């Protein structure tokens, strides 16, 4: 029995690694196409039909590009920083239930690698550690723009983590569990039971913190090309740069699954739509929303991010917790 569990866990881990690595590359193509459409451009068109083979061209370029390390960089830290970003992104996925249980050849498959009873805490903790990758990359590079990008990483980490942690306390108080499966089951009664209706402020705060966690516009302070070239990634090339990029897009999928599971009914059936398809549609919509925001919202400065998180969003999260507590008491 233990051997079968180990084999099943290994197979799930390989599938998650392969699928989301491929989706990270495909999402870049979709992003370029969506941004082009919104800006009245064509986007990638030359490589394959409508540019769909651009993914293969970009992947080949990453694998073949010279792995350059600056002479004055702190080489051990410079080399390990991309690994931290990519590894933590996929480790965070181990506690995420992607789909409902289903049977295959008479065997019940649970689409979660590790069903821990503190799933939310585990996912957010590991995802937060992922920002140490850009921080170490910026500090170890022999480049002032990289150092500024690393400093901005610390600013962003200290700002959004407070908001993301406090914003989900109120929903967790209502559910009474840190398990993502329990949170999903709490909303099993239909669309009226979704936590977005009883916790709209928590939803908005968590989504805003998600933008900062995934380094997406308007909170892409770490590599804002108009100010600090490419930030922490300025000195990186080849697959080391690719690992940063894969980790960033893997985090995007993790955050979208978290939002779907915690506020939008998760993988419960949605009217006539089965639960597995429902959560895929929700995640696709959220990813589109993240891309849409990039096309329509300007960048903000680091001091504006700190002002927003510490003076506006954090007090709102605390007020929401107090109101939820009083409502539950009476």
Write the layout of secondary structure elements.
Layout (H helix, E strand, L loop, with lengths): L1 H37 L15 H11 L10 H17 L10 E3 L2 E3 L9 H11 L2 H9 L3 H24 L1 H7 L4 H7 L8 H4 L1 H14 L11 H4 L9 H26 L11 H22 L5 H28 L1
Helix pairs in contact: 1-12, 1-13, 2-12, 3-4, 3-5, 3-12, 5-6, 6-10, 6-14, 7-14, 10-12, 12-13
EC number: 7.1.1.-
Membrane topology: Multi-pass membrane protein
Enzyme class: translocase
Helix count from the secondary structure assignment: 14
Helix and strand pattern: HHHEEHHHHHHHHHHH
Class per helix and strand makeup: mainly alpha
Give the strand content.
Answer: under 5%
Characterization of this structure:
The protein is mostly helical. Helix content is 67%, strand content 2%. The chain has one domain. The chain contains 14 helices and two strands. The protein has a two-stranded antiparallel ribbon with strand order 1-2. β1 and β2 form a beta hairpin. α2 crosses α12, α6 packs antiparallel against α10 and α12 packs across α13. It catalyses: a quinone + NADH + 5 H(+)(in) = a quinol + NAD(+) + 4 H(+)(out).
Descriptive tags:
mainly alpha, 14 helices, quinone binding
State the gist of this model:
The chain has 330 residues and is mostly helical. 67% of the residues lie in helices and 2% in strands.
């Amino acid at each position: 029995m233990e051997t079968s569990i180990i084999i099943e866990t290994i197979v799930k881990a390989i599938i998650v690694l392969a699928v989301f690595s491929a989706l990270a590359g495909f999402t870049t193509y979709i992003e370029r196409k969506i941004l082009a459409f919104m800006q009245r451009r064509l986007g990638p068109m030359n490589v394959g039909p409508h540019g769909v083979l651009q993914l293969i061209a970009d992947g080949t370029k990453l694998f073949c590009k010279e792995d350059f390390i600056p002479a004055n960089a702190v080489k051990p830290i410079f080399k390990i920083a991309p690994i931290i970003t990519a590894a933590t992104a996929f480790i965070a996925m181990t506690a995420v239930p992607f789909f409902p249980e289903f049977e295959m050849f008479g065997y019940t498959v649970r689409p979660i690698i590790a069903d821990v009873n503190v799933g939310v805490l585990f996912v957010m903790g590991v995802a937060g550690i992922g920002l140490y990758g850009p921080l170490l990359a910026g500090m170890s590079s022999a480049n002032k723009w990289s150092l500024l990008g690393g400093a901005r990483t610390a600013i962003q980490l200290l700002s959004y983590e407070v908001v993301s942690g406090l914003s989900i306390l109120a929903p967790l108080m209502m559910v009474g569990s840190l398990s993502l499966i329990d949170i999903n089951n709490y909303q099993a009664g239909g669309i009226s039971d979704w936590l977005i209706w009883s916790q709209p402020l928590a939803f908005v705060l968590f989504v805003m913190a998600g933008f900062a966690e995934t380094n997406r516009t308007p909170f892409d302070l770490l590599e804002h090309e108009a100010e600090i070239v490419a930030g922490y990634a300025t000195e990186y090339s080849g697959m080391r740069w690719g690992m940063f990029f894969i980790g960033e897009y893997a985090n995007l999928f993790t955050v979208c699954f978290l939002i779907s599971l915690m506020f939008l009914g998760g993988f419960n059936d949605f009217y006539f739509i089965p639960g597995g398809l429902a959560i895929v549609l929700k995640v696709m919509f959220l990813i589109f929303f993240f891309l849409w925001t990039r096309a329509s919202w300007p960048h903000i400065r680091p001091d504006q991010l700190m002002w927003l998180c510490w003076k506006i969003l954090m007090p709102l999260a605390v007020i929401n917790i107090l109101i939820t507590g009083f409502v539950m008491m009476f």
